[in-house]
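Exercise 7 asks you to align residues with tokens for two separate proteins.
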Amino acid sequence: MEGVRTVPELTYPEVGATRAGPLPAGWRHVRHRVRLPDDSFGRAGDAVLGWRLHRAAGIRITADAPRAAPGVRVVSGLGVGPLRLAAPCRVVWAADDARQAGFGYGTLPGHPARGEEAFVVTRDDSGAVWFEVRAFSRPDRWFMRAAGPVGRAFQQAYAWWLGRVLRRLCAGQ
């Protein structure tokens, strides 16, 4: 698949599936889409690709590069102090053109889950701007398995929260 980089250390085989089609069967799926202001495509795309969205949402981000690009290693941190959970990922695809800006990253060893998540801003034929989170995952650590439905609810809430934060960033708040 063009623009998708396969990295052997990823913890799942369906690399790039958040970019190009149906999410793979047998995984937990997340899809959340929110409309953004029509004039916000550039601001929203920059916020997603430059990690600003995640940081504004309260996620600690450490990345090998200032913008998402295939091969960039990213560690997201959730929580506080000794309760902070590190979630290492690698960007497997990125897009930055007149119709789409965003990326997908896949889990690396040490992540509490296995799978891939994408954060994408699109502009449709009518000029409407949308933000979408697409993901497929499975628990990979005991505490994620034990979380059961609470873990799934957290993933949905996280996608909703990112949409809300990006709308606020686009409005300049």
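Second protein for Exercise 7:
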Amino acid sequence: MKHKLVNTCFIAILALFVVAGCSKKEVKPVAINEKTDKCEICHMAVKNNEFATEIILESGKSMVFDDIGCMYKWMKENPDKKINHSFVKDYDSKEWIEADEAAYVYDKPIKTPMAYNVLSFTDKKDAQIFIDEHGGSLLTYDNLQNHKWEKNEEMVKEMKEKMNMHGQDDLKMEHSEDSH
């Protein structure tokens, strides 16, 4: 009887280890290297700021983007690629969050690196505070799947003019400092 109890406990503990070992490993975003990381779509440098996004494929490959619009453009152009996780940065804290857990704000005057005009927030409350102060529309992750991902052409033209007048370094500083 005692031998059966020991065997049962051993099997239960072994099963627990097997289940724990087979459980899905936590996936975290890869740190951005501002000196070498380029957006997969527009090939601009990716800053470690509130606009950065990242996709991790099932293969483990990590890809970074300088604007959430670039990330969605890549996903549309690569429907056959299996995405394991996608991350966005919280606009306020600049901390990584799972894209499907974030709340979003869209407004045409919002300045983002590639003029897609969408910001990410850790939660709906923070997004609503931004909207109350600056305007915009609240979007969920599900809304983004059907969002019309178009660049604000007026903003693109303005950015190109500034690049020609001041050089690209001035424009990069403006993206991180003047976001609305």
